[in-house]
Amino acid sequence: MLSCCGLSDGQVTAHDLGDAEVKRAMRATASRTVLVADGAKFARSATAVVCATSEVDVLVTDSSAQADTVAGLRGGGVEVLPV
Q1: Where does residue 75 rank: exposed (0-12), middle (13-18), buried (19+ CB within 10 A)?
Q2: What gap in Å lies between CA 77 and CA 23, rounded to an integer?
Q3: CA–CA distance, 39 with 79 (Å, rounded to integer)
Q4: N or C terminus: which one in the chain shows less Cβ crowding within 10 Å?
Q5: pTM, two decimal places
Q6: Are the CB atoms for 30 and 9 separated by under 8 Å?
Q7: Tens digit of pLDDT per residue, the chain (83 long)?
Q8: SS3 labels along the chain
């Protein structure tokens, strides 16, 4: 399970380079990627790319997540679970 600092332009990003490196390593060994990102993370970007949003299997988010972005993620095969 990953968190992020930003989720935009088809990328999951983090502010800290070391944090991003650890998250990439976690993804490399995982059979499934679950991202937790509240709606405030949508349309934000940060310094380091963790992965493409297309590499995320499940996104857990809240009701403030942008509907058009959620629809796009679902269309790309990401399972979106609003909480």
Answers
A1: exposed
A2: 21
A3: 16
A4: C
A5: 0.91
A6: no
A7: 999 999 999 999 999 999 999 999 999 999 999 999 999 999 899 999 999 999 999 999 999 999 999 999 999 999 999 99
A8: CEECCEEECCEEEECCHHHHHHHHHHHHHCCCCEEECCHHHECCCCCEEEEEHHHCCEEEECCCCCHHHHHHHHHCCCEEEEC
